What does this fold into?
Amino acid sequence: MSSATPVPTPAWRPLIHFTPRQHWINDPNGLVQVGKVYHLFYQHNPQGTEHANMSWGHATSRDLLRWQEHDVALPGREAHAIFSGSAVVDTHNTSGLRQRGDASPPVVALYTGAGHSWQAQYLAYSRDDGETWHFGPDHPVLDEGRADFRDPKVFWHGPSEQWVGAVVYPDERQVALYGSPNLHVWTSLSVFGPAGEAGGIWEVPDLFALPDETGREHWVLKVDVFAGGPQGGTGAQYFVGDFDGAVFTPHGPARWADYGKDFYAAITWSGTPGRCLWTAWQSSWDYATRLPTHPWRGALTLARELGLRRGPDGELWLTQVPLRELENLRDHHLPLHLTPDTPATLPLAPDHAFDLSLSLTPQTVLTVRVTSAAGDELALRADLAHGTLTLERPARGTLAEVPGFGGTHTAPLPLTQGGGLDLRLVLDTSSAELFAGGGLLALSDLYFPEAVPELLHLAVESGEATGQAWTLRGAGGEPGA
Ligand code: FRU
It folds into this structure.
């Protein structure tokens, strides 16, 4: 690597995805809605574009799209770095952290304090609705003397009237569940795993409830894998099952939450009434430290609405679709009807993202290409005849030197016998997020165009596709909160 000053890359700054103004970001942390404000925290190096000095960066929004960045909420400490974790509103002051005169309940965060050869869970809190933060006691609230033990995800479990925390034993490929009456004292409930993909270490667990189409509640356990993901390398797997307040029991096999290369460390938002959303880091540990953007490095995915539906095998699958607020950014609209005789070429504007929604008849073969003066920047192919979706991202220029970046990412389409398919593509300056089959399939990939993308080419080789395309206004900063 040369030590020359890096050249800024404004053309790769996403328009509708969160990036810090400058420096490194990885996992989203402490995602919590407090009143009307969404608080986003994230693994952040406030001093550089490497994974170092780990701290919780902080940004707020009222629509999950327009973010205002604030001072670092939890700066890395002398004793330990601040690794990933979660936050909750302690409505009933179980923690006793609410003081006389406080206008609202405390917001409490659990994070991993990471030393050189140990990790344990610590508490931090806010007494002003998440705006400013204080470290809790100097001692950890959950410590098992382990070298690797991290990423606490906490939620209130009504039926058993306790806080439940999911924490990972990375080397053991296990998710350990704990219970607490007050967020300070934690006792072991059970341990899940190894299961599903267990070739690489596990990270960032989450456990949450979702209703199926009949309204019956089920539980989803998600955990990330460091190796063996759907495209090799890092990935996110989930299990659907039951949780009785102590033990999670899966009722089906592990599935991939996302078939792209760039979806990791997703956690659900806490305190979002009537909806369940999550946000992930849109990158991969395979090459995150080598991405060529400047002065920032890393981005988050759009928030995705989560649901449960029966997949083609009749089992319950997780569904993900882009947050509904995205519709507020829609600008120009274009109806589309594609047949083998009528392809379409649409202009792309550098200050707009793009939202494409298509409904494909059975057996359709559709290609979508993003092109610039430098050639193909991204090529997508949905082949209903063979049941596959492929996204090809070339790696030219500086990206050619980044191992694992270039390639073709293939996913099985969630097709029912003789059925068609709906497809949604949200395209930003350096991000492609793809959803199919009502969100049964998601695929998230970064891409870094050689030249500014100018055209979107849509064609069907067989079959038919109808739908629409919208340009999306860039979210910019403000109005955050
Ligand atoms: C996942 C992860 C977590 C850890 C954090 C450190 O990407 O490795 O397990 O807490 O990032 O930044």
About this structure: The pocket of beta-D-fructofuranose is lined by residues 26-27, 43, 54, 83-84, 112, 150-151, 203-204, 264-265 (CB under 6 Å). The chain has a mean pLDDT of 96.
